[in-house]
Amino acid sequence: MGAYRSAYERSIADPTGFWREAAADLDWFRAPERILDDGAAPLYRWFPDAELNTCHNALDRHVAAGHGDRPALIHDSPVTGAVRTFTYAELLAETARFAGALRRLGVGRGDRVLLYLAMVPEAVVAMLACARIGAVHSVVFGGFAAHELAVRIDDARPKVVVATSCGIEVDRVVAYHPILTAALAEAEHAPERCVIVQRPQGPAELVPGRDLDWAEVMTDAEPVDCVPVAATDPLYVLYTSGTTGRPKGVVRDNGGHAVALRWSMRNVYDIGPGDVFWAASDVGWVVGHSYIVYAPLLTGATTVLYEGKPVGTPDAGAFWRVIAEHRVAALFTAPTAIRAIRRQDPEGELIRRYDLGCLRTLFLAGERLDPDTWEWAGRQLGVPVVDNWWQTETGWPVAANPRGLEPLPLKPGSPSVPVPGYDIRVVDPAGREAPPGTDGSIVIRLPLPPGCLPTLWGDDERYVRSYLTTFPGHYLTGDGGRFDDDGYLYVMGRTDDVINVAGHRLSTGAMEEVLAGHPAVAECAVIGVADPLKGQVPSGYVVLRADAEVDEAVLAGELVALVRQRIGPVAAFRRVRVVPALPKTRSGKILRRTMRALVEGRDEPVPATIDDPSTLTVFRGPGASP
Ligand code: COA
Ligand code: AMP
Fold this sequence. Notes:
The longest helix has 17 residues, at 88-104. This protein is α/β, with parallel strands linked by helices. Helices cover 30% and strands 24% of the residues. It folds into 2 domains: 2-308 and 388-481, ANL, N-terminal domain (Rossmann fold, 3-Layer(aba) Sandwich), CATH 3.40.50; 502-624, GMP Synthetase, Chain A, domain 3 (2-Layer Sandwich), CATH 3.30.300.30. It starts with a helix and ends in a 27-residue tail after the last helix. Helix 6 (146-156) crosses helix 7. It is built from 17 helices and 31 strands. Coenzyme A binds at residues 142-143, 167, 169, 174, 280-282, 285, 287, 309-311, 333-334, 336-337, 340, 365-366, 502-504, 569-570, 572. The site of coenzyme A has 26 residues, from strand 9 and helix 12.
């Protein structure tokens, strides 16, 4: 039996033995004796009696082992021209001091700290500093607007907010500080303090009594040590889009997370101490949490923090420049980024300008990897292109090709096989297992392995209702797909109202809430429509109130501006069209799936329950997509 098959089977037959062994790769203040607590099933907790500190395992441990001079973090920022390397000893010194600064501001174990930061080293320092003192960080992606920030502030109730004065989008300075101020004006919860990282490209005018300057709090901060926390204590809360406008606060524990990420780095990504790993994502997304910050540092590898884009900073060769300059062994990015590069450099001429001999693997995730992009990247780079499928909730890959454990044959269109720990099933609507080749809902049999969400922040009930109720005993991924005869999984897309725009997960429900708030709109629907660059883009359809007197083009402009202002530029909402009516079932449910199929020109049986088939006409043929 191959190494993969035997590890997989053991992980399912003997999960406690499997994860007990994996846990031995970490330092514990109190080593786990009990591995899994299933006393409150379907809620499970890993390593219930253990204590550790994630920051200790990410930094102190490597310095104590004599690796203080090894590069830990390379900040490469083409938008500012800065390139700076922090050794493990330097990153530890900064982190211990900022942890001291946070403690002086009254932040202690279990307190939340909200981070709204550009891709600067302070983001990594602040995350690790929270971990060091047992505080819970909640990072909000910079592309979200004030309202989204306010919603997260009210749910997480942070004691302190840490923000950069601005972000830089290619050549445009985006002032973050006014967005923070607007969010605080909207939020009911008031944090005690805001710590602002002042950037010379766009310094903020600090608010007296509320804001402190990062540089000043660091000057006289005393470094502090790691505190032991329970393995089950939360390390962070990361909000992700659900089907409604209210984001879900995905909770990550300390122990299971560290064990799973450490295991994945070696066995999935084939990265060891001293290797350079680059996840070209953002710390505001789960890929950034897991594979920019925690997994590479827990491994003693070097991580790259890149403040730039795949194209435009300055050109489509930017990724290859970074790989060659920092001797990157593996790049992890989203298929969209590769499509954007390909569009500008279809023959790969810029690729050949750089020495990419160091690159062993390209990992792609965040959205479906289309076989065409897979084939192009493999041909141009001459390295394996490895799709991996997972989500914010799981925190690490659910299906992947386990490069470190046993590289398996790659198949285009498939993220390969279930990762050890994940008992994946494809089921029909009645919960019966679908045979190979048949599409169904992808579910994971409980318990989920370590590292996956134990619950939603402050809301066990919502966790159970959203994920564990549809198919009892199983976690609902929200994705649909199938297995083939070789046990390879094919993930075809979401079965709910979540869409994926340029690798960013967004809720159509949230956009609908914004559109419905416009006085001229009687009802509306937002669907994700296939897009050759971004995978999907949102398209809005609105029905006007009978008494509305508006110019349709003016209204469309107002609605686009409203979504940008409420949700943020990242929603990429640019298309909206006025229609006479929306297709609905007789019970009033909007037929979004049918709309999407028609707009994309696919054949889809029209549900027999449709109320008025003539409502479908406007969604057919060219021009159906706004
Ligand atoms: N702060 C402020 N604004 C931000 C932002 C941030 N951190 N990130 C994105 N935005 C803005 C962009 O400036 C853009 O604004 P615009 O409408 O004024 O142009 C908008 O949000 C959409 O951004 P983006 O999705 O990045 O689209 P783009 O057209 O600028 O770039 C790609 C297209 C494909 C190059 C880009 O989407 C990309 O790199 N995608 C990869 C995503 C990724 O790595 N995801 C993580 C999963 S692994
Ligand atoms: P996020 O929570 O932002 O990581 O988004 C998770 C969602 O992105 C999943 O539920 C999938 O719909 C999609 N996704 C992520 N990776 C892949 C992949 N490799 N193949 C297909 N879909 C993916």
